[in-house]
Amino acid sequence: MANAAEHSGAKGHAGVIGGDGRLGAARLLLWALAGALAVRQAAVVLRVPPGEWLNAFHLPGSQAGSLYDGGQFTGTPFAGLVLKPLVGLAAPSLEVTWTCVTLLCVAAMGLVAARGLPDPVPRRTALLAAPLLTALMMASLPVREAASPGRTAVLPVLLVLLAVLRVPGERPAGFLVGLAAALQPALLLFAPLLWLTGRRASARTAAVTFAGATALSWAFLPSDSWTYWVRHLAGTGLGGAPDGLANQSLHGALLRLGLSGPTEILLYVALAAAVVRFGLRRAVRYARDGQLLLAVAVTGCVAVALSPTGWRYQMLWVLLAVAGKVGRRAADRRVWPVAVVLVMSLPSQVLLPNMAALAPVRDNVLLLTALAAACAVPFLPRTSPYWREPVPTAYGRPAAARWSRVPLMPFWRRVLSRPNLLLELLLIRVGYSLYSHIRAAAPNSRALAEGNGSRIHAVERALGIDIEHAVNHAVVDTPWLEAFFNFYYTSFHFVVPLAILAVLYWRRPADYRWARASLGLATVLALIGFWLYPLAPPRLMPGLGFVDTVHGPQDLANPSYGAMTAISNQYAAMPSLHFGWSLWCGIVIVVLAPKGRQKLLGALHPLITVCAIVATANHWVLDAVGGAVVVAAGFGLVHVLSGPRGVQPVLPAQRAEGTGPGSGPGSGPAGPGVASGAAVPVAGSRSRP
């Protein structure tokens, strides 16, 4: 017994050491990622010619005249007064100094914010939070823009974080907040937050510091102070047009909607007052609840929204709002952080399609996210029973792997519940946007693509399957058939896969995850094919006599091929995703449809699609073969990662005893997310989670 106890203790000690080693490796990798992003950002900024740096600063000493003569400098007169000594540096030194200080401030923000997470925080979370937050901020749009000359958006955020989270004294904390407000006036809103949370000495010191710094700038720069505070109403119109997309404030949004004059001003004041009222009340509530970092983030979002000019590089507060917990289910906890990271890292054109109806949302996506964080997102209080123990995710026990030498991946557990719809739609949209950009950026050398097209044509002739020309001209000679194939080619490519995913999401969530994963993997493999093998489709091969029935006659003497090149890469043809996606649809319908006629319709869809892509001269027959290969590989990878589509049911007794159909080699455990005493349904069942 003693030997057994010693052996058990040794194993436990080894497990702790192994866990610490993995944790240290993860921290090192995250810090390396943050460092790489910082180096990349520094390289981008330092490529700006030195002369342009001084022009962009537009401070006394770099150019004659006012701070705001060129409309480039957007800071307060106090910021200009503070930055004036920097102009004495040589231009290269100024570039390096400014970039390094900005990036160091970002790293300091990550460290301070990680220490400000509400207690109790799991040890792993606390240790990984600092490099993770730093990496996220380095990759965000605000930091990418804040490193430009003369923009002091990062420093005020750091000053406020230090004041609220780290500085122990009341007056030093208030001094830092007042200094931040002197650099960005809307941040004076933190003084009411301090007052309402009992830190009245800090609030008074913040107000006095702000007033003193502003008075100092009036004394030394009276003309610039008049320009900033009176002519431009706290900076409105400096750095760009107030109705420009870069102004992500309530004032900018109303101007973009076409409002102006007294009507716009009255509506702006009313909306700003409502946002301040709701946002400050929420921030005070979170501060009293012990969530100081979230209170700071909410107040910062309110400040940027109500400011007359809330530029994109001032929106770092939104990223700090990931500190809040949202949702009772464990599966929903990642929705808000992922949405915020995507919004803060990607252009709005990637997040939303270019549709006129979505323009008000797409043009104001950062503002809407800030308003949501300030007034709408239901962050959990620490007293909630779901704060530490959310409703667990239901995992199924996968069947044993059919290939004993290819074990299942232990990290890919089979989730049986329906994924969050908002997150799912957002990820699908972002994934398709990235797919479109990568596809368009794939190599499109005309000579290489036509050479590959000639080789494909020669292989097909050798195999006796070069039917494209005969089919294309037969369809052209039959107008109704040409119209049918043109309509099928242009209409069903996206509609059918999206319809299948929607039905599976609602009726069979476990099968939805299986189908979605296989489609995503097949698409990624197809992108690799586009990069490695640019291929001219039959319609773009000169001298072969193909007729482009969908796009009309093409000028093959012009390498640009007209307007079609602006839409997509015309040489991303191998493999054919037109056929690949249709084959995926057919397989999913045949496997899952309950009725024979539904299976028949599913089988007909890829058959009609392959006829359409050949008849319209948009693909070679071998392109369809390539599409079939990547789809088969997608399904195969999902099988290797998570096992067969079916999931073994886990009964309560089996879960308690650790036995059952899926407890053998090659199958993962049910997972900690499976609630005890509740049977897990078989994947593909129509019961709702």
Polypeptide structure, described:
This protein is an all-alpha fold. It has two domains: 26-61 and 73-376, no CATH class; 446-552 and 574-644, no CATH class. It contains 29 helices and three strands. The two termini are 45 Å apart. 41% of the residues are buried. The model is unreliable at 4-8, 10-18, 58-63 and 649-689 (pLDDT under 50).
Average pLDDT over all residues:
79
Approximate strand percentage: under 5%
State Rg.
Answer: 30 Å
Tell me the major beta sheet. 3 strands, antiparallel
Structural class: mainly alpha
Please give the domain count: 2
**Distance between the amino and carboxyl termini:** 45 Å
What's the short version?
The protein is an all-alpha fold and 689 residues long.
Give a topology summary.
Elements: H1 2-46, H2 50-57, H3 77-83, H4 91-115, H5 123-139, H6 141-146, H7 154-166, H8 170-183, H9 190-196, H10 200-220, H11 222-231, H12 250-256, H13 261-288, H14 292-306, H15 316-320, H16 335-345, H17 348-351, H18 359-363, H19 365-376, E1 395-398, E2 414-415, H20 421-441, H21 446-463, H22 468-476, H23 479-507, H24 509-532, H25 564-567, H26 577-592, H27 596-615, H28 621-642, E3 647-648, H29 652-657
Antiparallel strand pairs: 1-2, 1-3
Helix pairs in contact: 1-4, 1-5, 2-4, 4-5, 4-7, 7-8, 7-14, 8-10, 9-10, 10-11, 12-13, 13-14, 14-19, 16-20, 23-24, 23-26, 23-27, 24-26, 24-28, 26-27, 26-28
